[in-house]
Design a protein that fits this description.
- The complex is a heterodimer of chains A (158) and B (516).
- Chain A has 158 residues and is an alpha+beta fold.
- Chain A has a 5-stranded mixed sheet with strand order 2-3-1-4-5, with helices on one face.
- The two termini of chain A are 25 Å apart.
- In chain A, 40% of the residues are buried.
- In chain A, 47% of the residues lie in helices and 13% in strands.
- Chain B has 516 residues and is of the alpha/beta class.
- Chain B starts with a strand and ends in a 13-residue tail after the last helix.
- Classes of the chains: A alpha+beta (158), B alpha/beta (516).
- The structure holds flavin mononucleotide.
Chain lengths: 158, 516
């Protein structure tokens, strides 16, 4: 368990950077998550103090948005689009396959810490569905076989 | 010979990077253009030859050597040869204003943009008063493209007039231009295509908006699901600043406009304008009650224009070509062009820009050429997750805001999602409610709780539990959501549900997909 003193030190440069930015909390949370992979509980007091907010307000914002994670995630994030265009091309079967192949449900991480699986509602690639996002790459026309290939590649690149 | 391989999200998702590498391996450095929006052809390789700009697609990296060989001999002999790209029927038959430049060149090349009439609208606007610009926008008949179709000129007039008459000794009132780039509807990618293929057009439109209403600061609220658009917008803004199209002294006029991209964090509701403003202020994206209108009390309580990407992009065209030219396109009260996005189970999906008035059937059958699966089309959802499912009897409706409203449907942001005959419409109705459960901001009860109950009631109907009573209950629940919700999230979630029930009742009998 990290101590909160360590975390305050960890993110103080970011807090300083966004303190004076109007509406700076979202950019700050993105920056923290970009650096640490998630927004640890222990950073909340420093964020609150820095931005002159209550801890409850900071909590409220973190928990409102699907993007912000409060626990560490896998080395790779795999998102499967669940929205209508992808459904029309078989994403329901794809998500069932993905959960089964990885042995996890949405919002869970594989035992080896390699992959966190998440739902996403639209990646804007709706003319070439079903779509999957792997970290920052979006992949078109993903069926079960293609999904397995992509996952195997993630394993190989580690 | 010049080679082009797009760098937009769909082209990349279909393997454009590998194709570009294969060209590089052969000693060719391709231009990374934007997409033309013919997504079924991506990755689309274009080559400038003596015979014009010809295309091959969709290409994969292993096609590159044979294409290079064919170019030495007879290009048209190659299987993937498409002929002159601009003569491909899908593109040639469109009426492109907003997308006229899309795909032509490197989207962040400032010289390119200016060579293709870029920033002419801004220069025109710099010589006008704010009121004159607002009048142009009113005359164009432009209505907001984000979904609600509110007249842009009227919104701008309100912001222009807000803040009181600035007395000489008083600081001018701070105002904002906010671009809604949250594009959350499934089946839509028109905003993304502007940002990835022609980002300066949006920047130009926002700067003109700033001049019109007296705003010096703009924000583009961009969804985090669009990393490519984010990267390109940041580059474009930096270059526009360096060339004084943004900043403290736009083209030596003494007028200022600053622009910044802010990322969303994965919340559909933040596309709703008041939720978006809360989010920009660094808060939970809770919908605000209206009034006050954002035009009067918007971002940080100041007068704010909130417009969709396409609305703001159209401003550049209107100022460049004149309000008259723009409003000559369209039908009835829907003026100009509509960015139709053809998606889902469709053979030829992509961006189709046409004057309002084309029928849904023409779009789906002529441009789309039917389903990707080759099976018959069963239902079409227009206007995103809050839009109705339309059965074949309604496909002859012209794409016009009023014509769609008359059949209890909506054009929304122009997304069309096609489903083939394997679709289970009860499952789709359930999903509409489920989506509302996941994405409701939670502020009002009909939306927050109504959607949860909606899922349960649909499950009971499909399980044949107390069927008749549960059907009545579902309709009453839909009434409550429609009438009692604070915004269209809860207020329109019943549209897909009711249309599925009305047009595909046999799917709700617990046997899976029915046969009506
Ligand atoms: C649930 C919900 C989601 C919305 N999502 C978007 C969106 O992603 N993009 C958008 O431009 N407008 C969206 N809107 C509409 C906006 O509230 C608003 O009408 C629009 O940004 C105004 O710009 P316009 O007049 O240029 O269309 C949404 C509305 C609702 C109720």
């Amino acid at each position: 368990m990290e101590t909160s003193a360590q975390n305050i030190a960890d993110i103080s440069h970011l807090v300083t950077q966004y303190q004076a930015v109007p509406g700076g909390l979202l950019p700050l949370l993105h920056a923290i998550q970009g650096e640490l992979g998630y927004v640890p509980e222990s950073t909340v007091p420093a964020i609150a103090t820095g931005l002159n907010l209550s801890r409850a307000e900071v909590h409220g914002v973190i928990s409102f948005y699907h993007d912000f994670k409060t626990h560490s995630v896998g080395r790779n994030t795999v998102q499967i689009c669940r929205a209508e265009a992808c459904q029309s091309m078989g994403s329901r079967q794809l998500e069932a396959h993905a959960k089964q192949a990885l042995g996890i449900d949405y919002h869970e991480t594989t035992a080896d810490g390699s992959i966190t699986l998440e739902p996403v509602y639209c990646l804007g690639n709706c003319a070439c569905s079903p779509s999957v996002r792997i970290n920052d790459d979006i992949v078109a026309r993903v069926d079960a076989a293609r999904f397995d290939e992509l996952v195997a590649k993630l394993g190989a690149s580690q | 010979m010049k080679f082009y391989i797009p760098q937009d999200t769909t082209a990349l998702a279909c393997g454009a990077e590998a194709a570009a590498h294969a060209l590089q391996a052969a000693g060719i450095e391709p231009v990374r253009n934007g997409s033309r929006g013919m997504f079924w052809l991506e990755p689309l390789l274009e080559v400038d030859t003596d015979a014009g700009r010809i295309g091959f697609g969709p290409v994969s990296s292993k096609d590159i050597p044979s294409i290079l060989d064919a170019l030495e001999a007879d290009a048209s002999s190659h299987d993937l040869y498409l002929g002159q790209v601009e003569q491909i029927d899908y593109l040639a038959s469109q009426q492109r204003l907003t997308y006229a430049r899309a795909g032509l060149g490197d989207p962040v090349c400032l010289d390119n943009y200016q060579a293709l009439n870029g920033f002419k609208g801004l220069k025109t606007a710099l010589a006008m008063t704010g009121q004159q610009i607002v009048d142009q926008v009113k005359d164009s008949g432009l209505r907001g493209r984000g979904g609600a179709a509110f007249p842009a000129g009227i919104k701008w007039q309100t912001v222009h007039d807000a803040g009181g008459s600035a007395a000489a000794d008083k600081e001018p009132c701070q105002k904002y231009i906010v671009c809604n780039a949250d594009e959350g509807d499934s089946g839509t990618f028109a905003d993304r295509l502007v940002m990835e293929s022609d980002p300066y057009q949006l920047i130009e439109g926002m700067a003109i908006a700033g001049l019109a209403v007296g705003a010096t600061q703009g924000y583009i609220y961009l969804r985090s699901e669009y990393p490519v658009a984010h990267k390109l917008l940041d580059i474009a803004i930096e270059r526009a600043e360096a060339a004084n199209f943004l900043g403290d002294n736009i083209q030596g006029s003494g007028k200022a406009f600053h622009l910044e991209v802010r990322l969303g964090a994965g919340a559909y509701i933040c596309g709703e304008e008041t939720s978006l403003l809360e989010s920009l202020e660094g808060k939970r994206g809770m919908v605000r009650a209206k009034p006050p209108l954002p035009a009067i009390e918007g971002l940080f309580g100041k007068p704010t224009v909130v417009n969709n990407v396409l609305t703001l992009a159209a401003i550049s065209t209107i100022l460049e070509q004149g309000a008259e030219t723009y409003q000559n396109f369209g039908m009835g009260r829907s003026r100009g062009t509509l960015a139709i996005q053809l998606a889902g189970n469709i053979k030829r999906g992509g961006l189709i820009e046409l004057a309002f008035g084309v029928t849904l059937r023409e779009v789906v059958e002529e441009y789309g050429q039917g389903t990707y699966s080759g099976r018959p089309i069963r239902a079409i959802q227009v206007g995103g997750p809050l839009g109705a499912f339309l059965p074949e009897s309604q496909w002859d409706t012209p794409m016009d805001y009023e014509a769609f409203a008359a059949i209890k449907a909506m054009i929304g942001h122009g997304g069309i999602v096609v489903f083939d005959d394997t679709a289970d419409m009860a499952a789709q109705a359930r999903f509409a409610m489920e989506f509302c459960v996941v994405e409701s901001c939670g502020k009002c009860t009909p939306c927050r709780i109504g959607s949860v109950r909606g899922v349960e009631v649909i499950d009971r109907i499909v399980a044949n539990e107390n069927r008749e009573n549960n059907l009545i209950l579902l309709h009453e629940l839909c009434d409550t959501m429609e009438m009692g919700s604070l915004c269209a999230m809860g207020g329109m979630t019943p549209f897909p549900v009711r249309s599925a029930l009305a047009h595909f009742p046999s799917d709700f009998t617990g046997q899976g997909r029915g046969d009506n």
